[in-house]
Amino acid sequence: MSTVKLTIDNIPVEVEAGTTILKAAEKAGIHIPTLCYLEGINEIGACRVCVVEVEGARNLMASCVAPVAEGMVVKTNSPRVRMARRLNVELLLSNHKMECPTCIRNLNCELQSLAQELGIRQVRFEGKKSEYPIDDSTPAIIREPDKCILCRRCVAVCEKVQGVKAIAPMGRGFDTVIAPAFQDKLLDIACVECGQCTLVCPVGALYEKDYTSEVWAALADPEKFVVVQTAPATRVSIGQEFGLPPGSINTGQMVAALRRLGFDRVFDTDFTADLTIMEEGSEFIERFTKGGPLPLITSCSPGWIKFMEHFYPEFIPNVSTCKSPQQMFGAVAKTFYAQKAGIDPAKMVVVSIMPCTAKKFECQRPEMRDSGYQDVDYVLTTRELARMIREAGIDFRNLPEEQYDDPLGESTGAAVIFGATGGVMEAALRTAYELITGKTLPSLDFYDVRGLKGIKEATVDIEGTKVRVAVAHSLGHARQLLERVKAGEQYHFIEIMCCPGGCIGGGGQPIPTNTEIREQRIKGIYQADAEMPIRKSHENPSIQALYREFLGKPLSEKSHHLLHTHYTSRGKY
Amino acid sequence: MEACQCEAKWEELDKIIAAHRGRPSDLIEVLHQAQDLIGYLPRQVQVAIAEGLGVSLTEVYSVISFYHHFTVKPKGKYQVSVCKGTACYVKGSPEILERLEKELGIKAGDSTDDGKFSLEVVRCLGACGLGPVMTVNKRAHGLLKPDTAVAVLKQYQ
Ligand code: SF4
Ligand code: SF4
Ligand code: SF4
Ligand code: FES
Ligand code: FES
Q: With an 8 Å Cβ cutoff, are A168 and B55 in contact?
């Protein structure tokens, strides 16, 4: 490997050949501002906010794409550089629909921060502003093109990470707009509502549909009994919204905050994650012993399900019929729990706190009404919950830790790992092994299916029977894995999660969410697992009681009615 | 979307697509051939091309909307070409164009829904002395002001 020597702001640096000036500067401890750049995903040199001066070169260079050269002399902070950066940002501001105080991204907006960082105090130009309608057609994602700065990060994520290609630049020059073909509404196209675009948008041009006012109204209504569930991945991400390090485990504070917001019961989606393992594990054992169809593919991730319905409907028979844990929760809350607690399910409102935008779509699917009502009424992302906590003036960081309510609040380590890629597989293996063999697992940790590798494979020996499993996260990797299956590769069990890293990297998580932060959240998830007294779903006493008192056994008629579902082929256009 | 008027040409189109099946990088070439064949690129044609080459409809439409050459509607009865060559530009052709876009309710590169007018931008028409210039079905109209340009359109209603 050859290296290159150069100086940046008089600091000598030695880096590998082919490194960008931006990366080399980072190594030298020099910060260069960027905007359109997204490491490994969007490296197109479009915004020119990252320009630097290179001795001997006539033009300033975009450091995010320009490679280093031997003996290069770079200046990142010359008057010319500062002026050019300012000019580029001023031009973006000159035609921007500037409504910071009421904008969803106020105080977490890269355009705003850049303007501050570059010391822009006035915008010298008045540009022509675009006037595109806001697209709020879907239950999950809103497009507001007039705030778009055309950085194309969303396009790159949708194409390269998710392989969906729902949106792209349309037109050219001033008239360019990032949109679906024919400027169709997101509702009418094969967008899976994963929200990955909302995570990377630097401004308020793509964001989640906010349901906080509906939830505030339910909380204020004395007639309503409002129940909340929290997804596994939210407990390791909510803290970031309040300045805590990414990945810190704040389960207890989150429960306390939800009580203070006025929820009548604070329950845990982890409970129904355990329930999912009972149902899906049994489904797997049945398919495995009775001849298929295999591979069985997990169904917890609504973005993946919508993707499959659009692009791979031929896999419908392979996908588990289990509802996702969020939907199982709604169905159980409005039947079993309502009965037990003597509450009229018509007056019960079920709210979910999710790392996910696609869950907003999922809860409105017409199939998800098996309790006789819409099983889950509102889905709030982690970001929306943080907004409510702030609005209520709750001092999150200093809250005492509180416990979930019983019985839908009891859970295991197997449930919390649903939040990370590989977790559902690992949880299912822990249970399937013990149910099949009747023996205790020697070690609970299946390291092969953990971590950020795109596609993970493992062979698990269940008393002489070899079970081949695979795990994919992000839809781009899901596509690769499904193509392998179509080409004849044999697996018994596959886990697919729509978002990179699994739910901890979901489209409703705090911004920023990047690879480093994903890794920290995954660490938090496995730490939470290790700290749980019970780590296998079938050992959850409240799950055992639920079967005893209400459902009978896994895959019973009642289970089928409440906890299982079916899928629809949706077409690509 | 208006009904596709190109049934007779589907067979021909299928042949073009078949020759490039599964080759996303041939998109622009296929679009050229399809437009030469049909005259424009309606939605159904775009879907067929997307499907055949293995790209998304969004990508197809993105490319079409980038190049002025491509059009998604049949050409209007009257082709209005506004010159944006240097001479016409400095004499005010941008204002002419803007006014015509407003009047017709379409952007350059598009055609009106009633099929009457298509609007496009061209480079120097070789009549710089008469700038700003536009042509309607090849007939030149010079020394335009936004109002007179609109009056010219009226002659063709
Ligand atoms: S996107 Fe950023 S700069 Fe634009 S209005 Fe919102 S907060 Fe302000
Ligand atoms: S929500 Fe997902 S599929 Fe839809 S445009 Fe955004 S990234 Fe693409
Ligand atoms: S919508 Fe957001 S991410 Fe996409 S191009 Fe516009 S500013 Fe960038
Ligand atoms: S960050 Fe380098 S050009 Fe946008
Ligand atoms: S520039 Fe318009 S005719 Fe020459």
A: no
